[in-house]
Write a structure and sequence with these properties.
CATH architecture: 3-Layer(aba) Sandwich
Number of strands: 4
Number of domains: 1
Helix content: 40-55%
Distance between the termini: 19 Å
Structural class: alpha+beta
Strand order of the largest sheet: 2-1-3-4
Number of helices: 3
Low-confidence stretches: none
Largest sheet: 4 strands, mixed
Strand content: 15-25%
Radius of gyration: 12 Å
CATH class: Alpha Beta
CATH topology: Glutaredoxin
Order of helices and strands: EHEHEEH
Length: about 80
């Protein structure tokens, strides 16, 4: 299983879309709020842009809420 971390903003509607999908599907990931300065710093350094949601898959960024949901659907037994 790859290492997964979701960087999100609690005020971003696209982040909330992914978080709601995860909750509904019973998916638990390492969550990193960009309201925390150290998380925002990692997002900018590794992902090279300030865009959320961003799912890091083994350290590689995956952007766009629909793409993240598609990845999660394909890689988890979604209820």
């Amino acid at each position: 299983m790859p290492t997964l971390s979701l960087y999100y903003s609690p005020t971003c509607p696209f982040s909330l879309k992914v978080l709601r999908f995860m909750e509904k599907s019973g998916i638990v990931l390492d969550l990193k709020s960009t309201t925390e300065p150290e998380n925002l710093k990692v997002l900018l350094e590794v992902g090279k842009k300030n865009q959320v949601p961003c799912l890091f898959v083994d350290g590689k960024p995956l952007y766009e809420s629909d793409d993240i949901i598609s990845y999660l659907t394909q890689n988890f037994a979604v209820r």
